[in-house]
Amino acid sequence: MTDMLAPSVPAKPARRRWSLPWYVTASLFWVGLMLITAVFADLLMPHSFTALDLKYRLVAPFQSLAHPLGTDELGRDVLSRLIVSIRISLLIAFGATLISAVLGTTLGFLAAHFRGIVEQIVLVLADFQAAMPFLILALSVLAFFGNSLPLLVGLMGLYGWERYARIARGLAIAASAQGYATAVSQLGAKPGRVYLRHILPNIASTLIVSMTLVFPEVILLESGLSFLGLGVQPPMTSLGNMVGYGREYITRAPWIMLTPSVVIVLTTLAISLLGDWLRDRLDPTIR
Amino acid sequence: MIRYIASRLLRAALTIALVVTFAFIVLRLSGDPATIILGPEAPPEAIEAFRHNWGLDRPVLVQYFDYFRAILRGDLGISMRDGRSAIELVGERIPATLALTIPALFLQLAIGIPAGVYAALHQGTAFDRTVMVSAVFGFAIPSFVLALALVLVFSVKLGWLPSGGRDSWMHAILPILTLGLGGAAALARFTRSAMLEVLGRPFIRTASAKGLPWAAVVRGHALPNAAIPTVTLVGFLVGSLIAGAVVVESVFSWPGVGRLLVVAVSNRDLAVVQCLLLLVAASMVTSNLIVDFLYGVLDPRLRQGARAGA
Asked: Where found, per UniProt (chain A) (predicted)?
């Protein structure tokens, strides 16, 4: 991994590579593995994730070559289900993080640009969002809108927007006091251009760090909802979903819930370690 | 100080009003409860009668104001499933939830604050590193995974503790541990960084330089100043305890409000979900008010009212 990040100087730089702490290298490796799994899920699955194999129910891991991670109560291959679950969970988390970043940044810019009443409304909404536990809000919305994958992604996309909004607003207000933003508007640029082409690139690193910090929280949130049976619905599966159904077999077949649990923990751990590390390197001002 | 309190109270009222509006918008307009409850094949007369009984056939704005007025009167509707008032259903579950969340909060404070302070005072030691590592893990492990891991070890393998139900105090141990441990890790990490920041300030150096013993510097100067940012976290802890209770009560089949919420959500029981949403909002607002007042107590700058609302 480190070789890819090294500057391509052909000299003797064996030791002059970026020295990453070991846990960052490990996290990058794990996140990379998860991304590859998610992208190539169809190729990597040994079985269809819904295929029943009633002769081989509750096979323990490492017992059979056909089912390296064992099977569940219906004889479905745990490894295949795990691979699909990783794809779904990451897809939801990616979609949600993007939506929330775009929404939050837009609202933050609007607040910074118009000030006055618009700013007050954005700030009150942000306070409200921060004050209520999101799980409770999400549960009430899901119950009454029914449940579908796009809705779930959209709902998760409301998670954490207030952090981007606060950051974007603060930084945009600070930026418009600086020379460059004034200069571009004096040259006749419309506000949209000033914010998107000039201010956004200048605050992008801070926003990216926030995205890395919000991302694992979205994974945790989605897996919690799915665990309760109120997130991703069968026949679709996600990591939390697998834990939720596997829990019934905790005495007889603990591997059904243990494998997805380990993946959830390692993934959130890896991404939040990366986020902390990025924050310390790129932007020590935010917490 | 009066202006400070007034602005906080106003904000609290505003939050509650926003929650009521949110509940109304989401819970009433997202779908037609009549068809959800009675099923799509119900005869049209039955649906009409149902809509009329619940006031669903009137203009939305009228429904909204009626709804607001009803809530101010303390009338939160009747559970569509079992016909009892929602407040009653929710109310009888509250003690069970408090029996988990209050001990869990004390557990968090009892572990998190001393661990964070000690880690900050002994920065770089093995203890400090252990605190930081467990804080990172405490964040990455979702409560349902922690709960199931505890069940696997203490109920399935060792057989020491029951894995669900509410028959004795033994049944409360695993849920309280699950709720307490995650928050303790977060609190320890936060306390540590608050403490480190205060320890780096010039007044600490001054206090040691004038010959004060280190223990007195810590007790008299570092701890009170580090307490101010740490108090903010209490609001966050209450929120995460509520969200945690939803998951933990479901895992341990504990008959509290969290489990009621999950059941009400899957049954689409409007009145009960509304009532729970308001209960959560009220507890959040109350805990935030307590935090604000604690600020006033801890921070003399606020008490003198020099600049309110900082």
From this structure: Cell membrane
Global ipTM: 0.80
To the nearest whole Å, the CA of B101 is away from the closest chain A CA by 15
Q: Give domain status of residue A13, yes or no.
A: no
In this structure, is the dihedral angle defined by the CA atoms of residues B305, B18, B239 and A100, taken in order, positive or negative?
A: negative
Is residue A46 situated within a structural domain?
yes
The verdict on residue B82 lying in a domain is no
Number of domains in chain A: 1
Looking at the domain assignment, is residue A14 inside a domain? no
DSSP A233: P
Please give the residue range of the domain that contains residue A162. Answer: 21-52+63-286
| B156–A264 CB contact, under 8 Å | no
- How far off is chain B from A228, nearest CA to CA, in Å? 7
Token couple for A224: 């919690």
Dist. CA A218–CA B167, nearest whole Å? 35
Q: What is the CATH number of the domain that holds A164?
A: 1.10.3720.10
Rounded distance between C-alpha atoms, residue B155 and residue A247, angstroms: 13
CB contact under 8 A, B144 and A240: yes
- Cα B159 versus chain centre, distance: 31
From first to last of its 310 residues, chain B has per-residue pLDDT tens of 677 778 778 878 888 888 888 877 776 665 566 666 666 677 777 777 777 776 667 777 887 888 788 888 877 777 777 778 888 888 888 998 998 999 999 999 999 999 999 998 888 888 888 888 888 888 888 888 888 888 888 887 787 877 777 777 778 888 998 999 888 988 898 889 888 888 888 888 888 888 888 888 888 888 888 888 888 888 788 888 988 899 999 888 888 899 899 888 888 777 788 888 888 888 888 888 888 888 777 777 766 654 444 3
- A243 neighbourhood in chain B, CB within 8 Å: 144-145, 148
Residue B235's CATH number:
1.10.3720.10
Residue B51 domain-assigned (yes or no): no
Q: Is residue B22 part of a domain?
A: no
